[in-house]
Amino acid sequence: MRTEQEKIKIQKITDFADKSLLIVDDDNPLRDRLARAMEKKGFKVYQAESVKSGMNQAQNTPPAFAVVDLRLNDGNGLEVVKEIQRLKKDSRVVMLTGYGNIPTAVAAVKAGAIDYIPKPADADDVERALLASPESQANPPENPMSADRVKWEHIHRVFELCNRNVSETARRLKMHRRTLQRILSKKSPR
Prior knowledge:
The protein is of the alpha/beta class. It has two domains: 4-131, Response regulator (Rossmann fold), CATH 3.40.50.2300; 147-185, Arc Repressor Mutant, subunit A. It has helices spanning 4-7, 28-40, 51-60, 78-87, 102-111, 123-131, 147-161, 166-173, 177-185; strands at residues 20-24, 44-48, 65-69, 71-72, 75-76, 92-97, 113-118.
């Protein structure tokens, strides 16, 4: 059995000539905190708070690394990932989101992201994801979502995609409308 160090080969930021990192997130305190932490780790950090400003920043200075939130106030962070990959194919992009689910993880990887990290994520998690060797195997998450939480996230995602229409969501999920209403009225499980 391989040890954790053998499983993941982490490179150092000093191994890279281009240390530019674009952080795109509409949560200002989180973005600022992450930016300060990543600067201390040796990255040259640029920040953006929206899809539009993220795309502009990427076009002005295509980053070697990027951390992009999936849901931004003015759209989907996947658009920023696609633009970064179009401008700089070898850029290492990590998606960050509070809405972790399998379809969005697949979409993020297809758009060019190398990893997908659920919020809250700390700077060490982000650094590990950005600097992991492409052929290495990912570490299992320290605190994965429970099965109940995954189910809750999926139901709420379908509900949002159905424009918050309970009847349409219940039909698509093949469940009784009242059962769905009870689930929607509860807080998210841990």
